[in-house]
Amino acid sequence: STSLQNEYASFSRESWPDNLSTLEGVRIGIPREFFVEELPKEGLRNWIAAADALQNAGASIVEVSVPSIKDALPAYYVIASAEASSNLSRYDGVEFGYRDSETID
Question: What is d(CA 48, CA 54) in angstroms, rounded to the nearest whole number?
């Protein structure tokens, strides 16, 4: 297996210490590259409402830049296709397929 077996901390509200009732001191970055022209107005309103809710809970909202994000989707498609091809290659018929005893390699 290629997965780590480490335990990860929970970041749900239930796991916060009892004395932490706000997000005071938490800084949340919102990538400016996510505000694209194709983003529906409702999506933008929800995005802004979520940022406002976080800010009202005490977090500071900062704009950040992730210029390489434009390459993420094309990279995902290349990696996903390569991974699927690699995983499916084990079923290429060489070991599991029909073998004719009279076939010359």
Answer: 10
Q: For residues 63 and 27, what is the distance between their CA atoms, to the nearest angstrom? A: 10
Long-range residue pairs from 83-92, CB within 8 A, at least 24 positions apart, any chain: none
Long-range contacts, stretch 81-89, CB < 8 angstroms, 24+ apart: none
CA-based R_g, the chain, Å = 24
| pLDDT digit string, tens, across residues 72-88 | 989 999 999 888 887 77
pTM: 0.53
CA distance 43 to 61: 18
Under 8 Å between Cβ of 26 and 58: yes
Which residue has tokens 């990538």?
31
